[in-house]
Request: fold
Amino acid sequence: MQCDRSNVLEVDLLHQAVESHANMRPDHMAIDQGKRTITYGELAEKMHRLASLLKSHGVKRHDRVGIFMGNSIEACVGILGTLRSDACYVPLNPTFPPPRLAGIVDDAQMNVLITVKSNLKMIQQTITMLEGPSPNTIIVLDLDDSVFSENENLQALASAVENVVGNEALEKASSDPDSSSATEEDLAYLMYTSGTTGKSKGVMISHRNVKTFITWAVDHFKITHVDKMSNHSAMSFDLSVFDIFGAFFAGATLVPLATVGEQMFPSKVIRNRKITIWFSVPSVISMMRMSKQLTPGAFSDSLRLAIFCGEALTPEQVAAWKDTHPDIPIHNIYGPTEATIACTHHNVGVDSPFDVNAPVPIGVPCPSTDFLILERDSDELVADGEIGRLMICGSQLAAGYWRRDDLTEKAFRTNPFTTDFGDLMYESGDLAYRDTNGIYYCLGRVDSQVKVMGYRIELGEIEVVLGRHKNIAESAVVCIKGEMPTLVAAVAIEEKLQNEDTETELLDHCADFLPNYMVPKQVKFFNQLPKNVNGKIDRRAIEMQVQADDKGISGG
Amino acid sequence: MTTVDELTEFIRSSLNLKDITEDSGMGKVRGWDSLNHVSLVMSMEEEYDIEIPPDMIGELTSVAEIVEFFKEEGAIAE
Reply:
């Protein structure tokens, strides 16, 4: 089989990869969702019809279109149709609470949402919480128009939105839309990430940004049409962009883990659907180990490669993998959303000795990326081996934050050292060092951002939500490290309210405004939060008290 | 073949729960979370020689739903 560079497609725009493969291998399976599958030919046709439909509903170049769905064939159709209509997609994760989704719809100023029937109630709730105008069109990809009048959620929605469009209109739409007028500098997606002020911010990523990473990755990992690529990460997390376009650039088959059960039991999906490349956050290794799914040779029939990204890959996780699958290589890749999916790579290797006491490197920058490490309190370069602030340069850098020039200017600054990799450097907020072999290591955050299951979380954003609760005088959220990091809310509250009912009430309050992964798992009550000498909340003291309490429980 | 009572007791002992009722379910009782739910699914598959499809695993999250699934599969004597 050919695995050389000639397998890497050259296209201007992301969705053109699907058009190319639909011409080359129309009957090859593009997406395998278990009970349902779709070929490249069918996928391209649906993409074209959806693009025509979107255009007929007024979508034009540079518009933002919401993809209000979980991972599925329909979500991919939605993304591709949006790009084919010259617009940019904005993932709206249906498991997020309506106020958060409404904030994104308002901020991105979306006129059109694409969804499936099962999310109509959530959309209805989201729309009632909008501050700005409602989207005027909702396209429901699996809606049979004849049952329109029987669906209560639809009727409610129809009163709030000008057009609710079903499958019939899609079937009738032209499969030959006008050619694209977009260029590779047009935005492909807006990805919303946690912000310190309690409002999430949209990272603007262009077709060119994504192509730069994907063409490198398809070549580097030798992804070809015979591969089956996992799609574990939610669409609202940019790891999913590698899944989707890694598969579509290579003409491979994408395997979405569409249900909660599949998410809980990845080992079954890998075996049953013969996944060849696994890509996810490393927490999945811990989850599989703790639920006894990681048994020796469990994936050896099909899997040829496992790639991890999104949070620190720990030596324990690598060891757990190597113990059970010594023959399947494991790669660590690193990069913030602002530098498009990932911009470093490190092959942990199958033959090389592995030291469980040494940190796993993030490796070396991808060819179109360069790193600078600056001193913590000045913009001076540090020497190799010294820890400093990691700055990222190169062609994977985002165009900035949507409608937030203030934040963009702060994070994307002029690179004073060299312009070989563009004029800008992005302040990643991570601490890192480079060893004498040129290998980079990431040591965590400069600020209070933490990661749970790969999701970026600004602890301040959770504190803002807690602060809205009427009974809370003061709060701080800490992240207790462990095999699975746990968020704990430390809350100063009247002594008579320090009980289990209040804990439940506070956690429910958080769940009303925050996605599940941001809701603390536990509340610790204080009469007053511990403070340091400067009068600031002493997070370290809180962490120590929580850990001491936990030991007390498990020991007693 | 098993019975509703046997299956319920199997679930209780697998999850190491004190008490169990038809309504007991993941997230509702202490000790039944998503991690040991996966272990429970694996041990039921082994014990009863039954295959639970991955897309069902997230739906079979209470005693009642598991019993119903076993009935549909013909693995419980009526």
Observations:
- The CA atoms of residues 154 and 421 of chain A lie 50 Å apart.
- The interface with chain B takes residues 34-35, 258-265, 268-269, 272, 287, 290-293 of chain A (CB under 8 Å).
- The longest strand of chain A covers residues 424-434.
- Chain A has three domains: 33-205, 259-445, 450-555.
